[in-house]
Amino acid sequence: MVSTTSLLLAAFATIAYAAPTKGPCKSLTPTLPSTGGDNLQGPSPAARLKKIALGHGIQNYTCSASDATPSATGALAVLYDATTVYPGLSKTALSTDAFNSLPHLLLWDRPVPLNRPSNSSYSADTTSPFPAHNDLKGLADYPSFKYAGHHFFDSTGTPMFDLDASGLKASVVKGGNVNAPQDADKGVLATGAVAWLRLTDSGKGQSKGVNLVYRVLTAGGNAEGCAVAGTGVQSVPYTAFYWFYED
């Protein structure tokens, strides 16, 4: 396993604190992590942070031929609430390095939390991919992380976040992306970490309380080459932090 302190601290800039705004904390507002290079456009000064979630699931791809380039077809993930353990927010908050290491630790410590066909290592059941709602417990020495919701793509291919534990919902489209740091966790298949994303409201009227989402601190999730994966659907495990805003 990769050292959670040395690699992740090198990959991500020190997290700073912005002026207090309305949000989930009383005196501090968490600031988005930095790649140490190119960064995503941040939220507006008026944006309200509603939740930080730790996501664990799969990125799905298809290959039309062995010499083709994999095509992304969606993702599935279970989300866990990590808002209160952000550094400095509460008595149960983690240190910066411990917080930033959570995606790496989760990816390697736990199996993908989806209903899987018996003949598959990572793919999810197509009719019922999500298991019963369960909190994430016993991750290293960290506290329990409450179940927060699900991430999936709807029948039209639109990315969705259903935070049913809090009533928040987001229907989004990609508004920006930057590559993950070169030394980010490459994942269990050693394919590399998926890009960091800025996701904006889709305009379909399906969002509730959230209209801006960021995917950051990613681990794993990039596709295998079609020559390796073969034709058909391939599913690659990943973890990431998702930051949810009302902007």
User: How many β-strands, per DSSP?
Assistant: 10
- Biggest beta-sheet profile: 8 strands, antiparallel, barrel
The percent range for helix content is under 10%
Written as H for each helix and E for each strand, in order along the chain, the element string is HEEEEHHEEEEEHE
Strand content: 25-35%
Uncertain residue segments? 1-27
Tell me the Rg in angstroms: 17 Å
Distance between the termini: 38 Å
Q: What would the principal axes of the Cα set say about the shape?
A: globular
Which class of secondary structure composition applies to the elements?
mainly beta
Helical element count? 4
SSE order and pairing:
Layout: H1 6-11, E1 17-18, E2 29-30, E3 48-63, E4 71-81, H2 96-100, H3 102-109, E5 147-153, E6 159-163, E7 168-178, E8 196-201, E9 212-220, H4 226-229, E10 232-246
Antiparallel strand pairs: 1-2, 3-4, 3-10, 4-5, 5-6, 6-7, 7-8, 8-9, 9-10
Keywords: Signal
InterPro entries: DUF3455
Pfam family, one: DUF3455
